[in-house]
Structures are given as structure tokens and as C-alpha cells.
Design brief:
alpha+beta; 11 helices; four-stranded antiparallel β-sheet; globular; Butyryl-CoA Dehydrogenase, subunit A, domain 3; 2 domains; 10 strands
Amino acid sequence: MFAEAIEQILKLKCTPAAVRAIEAGGAPTALWTAIADAGFLEMLTPEAAGGAGLPLAELYQVLVTLARYGMPVPLAQSIAARALMQGAEAPAGMITLAPALRITSAGMTCPLVPFGALAEHVLAADGEDLLLLPGDCAVRTATGVRGSLVATLAWKTGQETLRLPGQGGAVAVFGAALHAALLAGAMHKVFDMTLAYANDRRQFGKSIGKFQAIQHQISEMAEQVVAASIAAEAAFQSDGNLPALLSSAIAKSRASEAAVPVASIAHAVHGAIGVTEEYDLQLYTRRLHEWRIAHGSEACWNHVIGQAVLASTAPGISDFVRSTVA
């Protein structure tokens, strides 16, 4: 229900042209206001506090829908931030999650923050506590990648922040889970575009999708998309409103691993047209590469999984996975 409702807004407000405009430095006000006014920011907030009280499992399809439209604002992160700030009043505006926080005598730095170029607030983990940092007081440094909204944010010593006890360890976990879901949604979009192009593009009197070499590549892409989607959805089966560590680690690892071959096959099948700015494919494959490393790539989360496997009493990897995501 929520996924269908938000899709109606995205069809009107989150067109490829709107995404390109925001990536080029345009104001995201129209898109953000339409979503915020519809109440989607409080999907995980309990009903007693004025939210929708949405089960975590239902959030997955919402995140997939956002990714299929190339969402250029931190809606997923803002929903997660409000869930992490349990009992605290969240500020209005865009909130994003910081993958890391570095504190030195000179101040604080959050490197490579997703949507750091736009966010009005940044929620970061400082040990077991949460820090809510004001975006308007930060020095923002862009990555230099064209169209990227990732930025490194820095604050001088003495910057006023809001400190919330507890839930600090959940930032990385939620960041991994939501980016796994976003990767799954973007991969589905890329697969749909690639399959449609292979069926429409004709060469030597027939569609290129009839050639066995193309069929093999699309089959491999389908396997990667389905595997990543299953792993990502499993991370949202928690009974509470926060994902579990190991299921999130597995989800992010598998989705990040799939991002590279999916993007590569998509561009291979599309040929020269796939790398052009005018064609929409690049809006999604850029996100695959960006979200792959957001809040840890597969290498990062494979280490977490490996440590858990070594400590487990499960007789095999399959048994470990079943017990983890059950």
C-alpha cells in the first residue's frame, strides 16, 4: 500500500529530468515537500507518536520503489534516522546517515556521506551514542564525480550538536540494510531496461535478445538481481523496527557483490548508447557503483560475516545462513 502510494508521487515529481536537475545543483524542494507533506518520513514512527507504525518488512518494497526512480534526495536515510532517534523529536528537513565519524582536536569529519551535498542534518554514531550534526554549519567537500551527491562534511571544534544515548551501533547496520534494498531496486530497474532494449534492438534482421551470447549475459544478470533481492529482503524481516546485524551484513555483502556485474552486463548489452548522458541507464548504474561502497562494500561486511561464521556452531555455511535470516 505504501509503495503504491509513494510511486504515484514519484511518477509526477521524480522524473529523469527532475533527477538530472537536482544532480546538477537544482533545488530539491518540490520533490522533498511532496514526499514530506504526504507523511512518508514517519513510516516507522509508532502510531502513538503520530507515525504510521509501519513494520520493518513493509519498508523494503518502499525502498525498492525509491531506487527504481533514482531518488535524488535522502528519503530512505531520513526514514531510518527517525527510527533510530527513538523518543527524540527529529528536526524537519533532510537527514542522512554518516558511514563514519572522525573526531580530532580540530573538529569532526564525516567522510563520504550519502547525500551529504544536500542534507540539512547528519546523524552519526559516536560509540554507543548518536550525534545529530547541522548540515548548514559544515564545510562540504564534493567527491568530484559528476552527478554525485556524496560529500565529506567537516565541523570545527565547539560545534553544537544533539547527543542521544544508545543506538549508535545501529547506524552502520541500518545503513547497510537500506543500501542493500536500494541496490536491489536499482538492479531491477537496470535489468528491466536491459531486457527491453535487447528485445527492441534489431540486428541482422532480428532482435539482439535472440542471440545466444546476449541471452547468456541477461541470464547471468537475472541470477545476480534475484540473489541480491532475496538477501536484501531478508534483512527487513526483523520483528522490531531496526534490522539485525548479520542479516544486514549478508544483504549488503551480496547486493554490493552483484552491483558490478549487473552494471557491466547492462552497459555491454546496450553498447555505445548505454554510456551516453542522455540515456537514462547511467542514472541507475552510477547509483549501483555509489551504493555498493556506501556504508561498507562487500569486503567490509564479508569480514563481519566471516567472524560470525568462525564463532558459530552451525555445521555448514547453509545452516549458518538459515539460522541467521530465519
